[in-house]
Amino acid sequence: MKFNVEKIIAHFGGRASLHQQLQRNGLKIALRSIDKWRERESIPQHWLAELVELGNETGNPLRLHTMTTESDNYTGNKPSASEPELDSILD
């Protein structure tokens, strides 16, 4: 499962806000490290665990199942752009 790093960072208000929140909670991380997550499009597992905990502690829970690259492509019951809608098939 691949996570959408941009979406996770945005969940905490962006890279600077995330950095400040982590620092306030006693977690030492360089802003450059968060930039590296973006470059690699990957967050180390131990940091994912810290982000989930941070979200819970700040009342802004991080629901990882909504932060996957697969969830970005999920269309629910709606047809994708390449699939015709039922109404257009029946006309």
Topology readout:
Elements: H1 5-11, H2 15-24, H3 31-40, H4 45-57, H5 69-73, H6 86-90
Note down, in words, how this protein is organized:
The structure is a single chain. The protein is mostly helical and 91 residues long. The chain has one domain. It has six helices and no strands. The protein has helices at residues 5-11, 15-24, 31-40, 45-57, 69-73, 86-90. Mean pLDDT is 84; it is low at 74-80 and 85-91.
Q: What is the number of E strands?
A: 0
Largest sheet: none
Note poorly predicted spans. 74-80, 85-91
Proportion in helices: 40-55%
Write the element-wise H/E pattern from the N-terminal end onward: HHHHHH
Average pLDDT confidence is: 84
The number of distinct helices, counting runs of at least 4 residues, comes to: 6
For this entry, give a set of tags.
mainly alpha; 0% strand
Task: Kindly summarize this structure in a few lines.
By secondary structure, this protein is an all-alpha fold. It has 6 helices and no strands.
